[in-house]
Amino acid sequence: MELREAVFGIGQVVRHRHFGFRGVVFDVDPTFGQTEEWWLSIPEAVRPRKDQPYYHLLAENEKTTYVAYVSEQNLEPDPSGQPIGHPQVPELFGALRDGFYAVLPRRAQ
Length: 109
What we know:
Elements: E1 13-16, E2 22-29, H1 36-40, E3 54-60, E4 65-71, E5 75-77, H2 89-92, E6 93-97, E7 100-103
Antiparallel strand pairs: 1-2, 1-5, 2-3, 3-4, 6-7
């Protein structure tokens, strides 16, 4: 399997192409990294390929915030310029500018 470079970067605000929720990327897997059971739970008609980057998002919709795991084919840059309201955003990121949050340095543990 050939690995591709991820299109979206850490701190980038993105939008799901089909479901419309927004999120900020906080991690990237070079290919699918969940369980086979998780992947098979997605309806076959909309099940994404495994051979592409998958993104961990601090996500939000009109009702709630959550962590999402989304294939690259289902994401696009979010053009709104609006911040993400997820409560964990300030723990990982600084200011939002031009569709990207500044990544904060990791704290020693």
